[in-house]
Amino acid sequence: MNTRPDPDDLLERVMRDEERQARGRLKIFFGFSAGVGKTFAMLEAAQALAAQGTDVIAGVVETHGRAETEAQLAGITRLPMRRLPYRDRQLPEFDLDAALERHPGVILVDELAHSNVPGSRHAKRWQDIDELLRAGIDVYTTLNVQHIESLNDVVGQITGIRVFETVPDHVFDEADDVMLVDIPPDELLARLQQGKVYLPQQAEKAGRHFFRKGNLIALREIALRRTADRVDADMRQYRADRSIAQLWQARERIVVAVGSGVGEERLIREAARLAAKLQAQWLAVHVDLPGQHQAMEARERVVAYLKLAQSLGAETASISGEELSAALLQFARSRNAGKLVIGQEAGGLRQLLRWPRGTLAQRIARSGGEIDLYTIARSRTRVQQEHPAGDSAASAAEALLMRRRHARGTLWAVASCVATTTLAFVLDGKLHPANVIMLYLVGVMLVAMRHGRGASILVSVLSVLSFDFFFVDPRFSITVSDAQYLLTLAVMLAVSLFISSLTARLRRQASVAMQREGRAANLYMLGKELSALLTLDQILEIGRRHLAAVFGARIAFFLPDSADQLRLAEPEQDGGGGHVLKNVDAGVAQWVYDNGQAAGKGTATLPSAAALYLPLTATMRTRGVLAFAIEAASQEEQQLATAQLALPENRQMLEIFCSQIAMAIERLHYAEVAQDAVVTMESERLRNSLLSAISHDLRTPLTSLVGSADVLAANDRLDDDARAMARTISEQSQKMVGLMNNLLDMARLQAGVVTLNRQWNALEELTGSALRLLAKALEGRPVDTRIAPDLPLLRVDAVLLERVLANLVENAIKYSPAGSPVTISAHVEDSDGQPQVKVCVSDQGRGFPPAMTQHAFEKFTRGDNESSTPGVGLGLAICRAIIEAHQGRIWIAPQEAGQGATVCFMLPVETQPALPEE
Measured between alpha carbons, how far is 190 from 359 in angstroms, rounded to an integer? Predict the structure, then answer.
């Protein structure tokens, strides 16, 4: 067996190694759940690297307040977070530009699946990490199994909790190293009860939901299996890189060879049962031999067989090969499969014809001794029940086209033989008989090149008969007087048949190669042109042109609006001639968009549709729908082309085109989002600068006005009316000062210049301070405080949080009837697996208008724009900015109309400080 490495593979390997050396290395600390110790293990590895002199910095490390994890950061430089404006607030985010400028040896970036704040350069953290890797920086990161895209729905069904922050599988698969951080479920539950995952008071609640032992066991198995799959892929890559042909059967894997004949269903089902019995992966593969021309009916059967295997859990593939047994063995070795399943070959005359080479099983046994071979009998009843060729429209169309081609080939074969005979007859006496034979062989070769095997065989036989009839004595008779000419005619026929067969085979191989080269060139040009386009219309026009060139089809695109309803994207001008598809069904396109699956002609969903509809699926979401209809000169050719489109290689090429177009649309979308974010940031910065300047300019005269009014109000020489007027001036001026303070605070928070003075505080004390500030406004109004007695301490800025409580209570006073109560409640809740303190302020007023709940926290938003209630709508905006600066969230709780308003906020609970011993 030839084990010499393929030069193309060696070149590809060298190029891949060079690219890998230019990139940084990605190491993922992988676990099945929160609390298994991924971040701790990552920090341990970072400390070991730092001890060896490696430049290690922490870009993002989420310790969740765990003291033992925080201690592992000792001695590691922490990269400052940048703050990004988002809906009138500042959110902390990983500073990618600072990391690139710092260019450390290794950077720690926790939580690979994290979604970045809108306005960041990339939507996802894994995209930030990819840019770091391209810059040559090594990255350590963490990932839980539920965040892998292909496993997201499986984990959601097990746990009942669906996460929406996911990472594409290729990011995990392309990582240089994956370290599984694993502990037994019982140990994880013990850590939970000890407060090492969540606070002790939250452990019991978490154990009743996500942290059930059954959930943890299932998640652990999924994580172990996914890691094993990656290790298996690494092993196969290692064998391929070192041209190791010998199998390393570390895992059971079965390959089943699927033919195009009748009765392959039994072979596929038997292979599925064998795989289930052995608990092995299995692959169904069809080998396309270049010397064989399969009828459309046979190709339709291959597609149906592969779909059946896929539905039974197999991975399917369609490959090309010169010889069936060699192609199957090469595929099995490349996939490290130790078992090969084939169908039993028919006996009779076919078996006699195969005798010199041996049966397929014999050839495999001779060359693949390390692979176990299973031979399964095909069903004979299917042969008797099989419908004759031409039952399907595509088969009938192909039969008609083939008859036309055979008729043209027959005419050309006869014409070639007549022309060669005429030329030889004219030159009779001037040419040796051997040269006459050469003329006939040239004619055979030309017909084989132009019209294939059938016509070339016919012209071979006609050439031998013509040479015998016209040029061998006795002439004009098929009898032969000289016995030597019998050998000449036999050799001439054999050589003619050999040349015709070889030429026809080379013609078909050249045709397939040219077709593949043309499609690859079109795909390359499509990617090159899409990368330089700046408008959506240009992307769609380029897509129409290339798809029409490759598949000969009319194209239509559907794109979603803001409500995810599809609209037909009409071209500005039909510059592509007949490339635009007019007869489309918007209902089918909407179904494809909503479900992310192909539908229409040639599929199992809505097959009566006139066109094929494919989703334009990009990395983040589906970006639209492509409607695709093949056009041809006749109905028969159109039916044949539609059936050929269902073949795996053609459908795969079409899906690649769709993916390229979808990625270009997504790139353009995010470029527009980034541009809008820049404009919004500049607008916010300008507005905050104006507010700050105006506030500073008004604050000094207002302070003077308040002081002067207070002096006048205390002057006994003025009458009562004058002093009352002075007090009114003082009160209104103080309200104006409060408004200026709000404007200044809002500007500072927006600019990110406020530094939180975070200390441990009791919520009861902060609530009391806020109520004392509002003592005058609360006169005659009861306040009901319902603060849980076991509420933990909060690590917050006391002044700012007091401001939040005061603003919320003041709003409740303004927008509720005089004398009605105000309720303040607080307790601990479990949110996304983390303990949080939830605080709510409720009143008995009219409540928020339904249309306002989405905009109440924006600046200058008021409950009633024409109300006489004082204020400019900054109170809730300041509350949101302060709460989000503490990594919390604030919202309006739903209430029945007229039942009052309730505003709630949540703050994270951190590990409580140790109390001093008495």
Answer: 62
729 vs 874 pLDDT, higher one: 729
Nearest-5° angle of CA 531, CA 532, CA 536? 85
CB contact at 8 A, 840 and 900: no
User: Amino acid identity, residue 885?
Assistant: A
Q: Which of 151, 127, 173 is nearest to 618 (CA)?
A: 127
Structure tokens at 846: 């009219």
pTM for this predicted structure: 0.49
List C-alpha distances in Å: 753 to 338, 652, 675, 749.
65, 54, 25, 7
Pair 57, 107: CB distance under 8 Å: yes
SS3 104: coil
In 414-433, which positions are buried (b, 16+ CB within 10 angstroms) versus exposed (e)? eebbeebbeebeeeeeebee
> Burial letters for 318-347: b for 16+ Cβ neighbours within 10 Å, e otherwise?
beebeebbbbbbbbbbebbbbbbbbbeeee
Would you call 269 exposed, middle or buried from its count of C-beta atoms within 10 A (0-12, 13-18, 19+)?
middle
What b/e readout covers 11-38, taking b as 16+ CB neighbours within 10 angstroms?
eebeeeeeeeeebbbbbbbbbbbbbbbb
Three-class secondary structure of residue 208 per DSSP: helix
Q: Do 298 and 395 contact (CB within 8 A), yes or no?
A: no
Q: Quick one: tokens of 313? A: 């859990």
Match 């592992």 to its residue by tokens: 72
Strand 26-31 vs strand 138-144: parallel, antiparallel, or unpaired?
parallel
pLDDT of residue 837: 92
At 383, is the pLDDT very low, low, confident or very high (cuts 50, 70, 90)? very low
Give the 3-state secondary structure percentages of the chain, helix then strand then coil, rounded to 5: 50, 15, 35
The amino acid at residue 691 is: L
Percentage with pLDDT > 70 across the chain: 78
The residues with which 19 forms a beta bridge, in sequence order, are: none
Which amino acid appears at position 274 of this protein?
Answer: L
Q: Which among 92, 35, 24 is positioned nearest to 69, based on CA atoms?
A: 35
Give the length of the chain.
Answer: 918
3-class SS at 857? coil
What six digits make up the tokens of 217?
């066991």
Which is nearest to 615 in space by CA: 655, 646, 580, 575? 655
Residue reference for tokens 């006699």: 352
Residue 389 has pLDDT above 50, yes or no: no
Q: How far apart are CA 463 and CA 560, in angstroms?
A: 65
* 8 Å CB contact between 589 and 564: no
Report DSSP letters for 272-324, one per residue: HHHHHHHT-EEEEEEEE-TT----HHHHHHHHHHHHHHHHTT-EEEEEE-SSH
pLDDT at site 842: 92
In three-state secondary structure terms, 613 is: strand
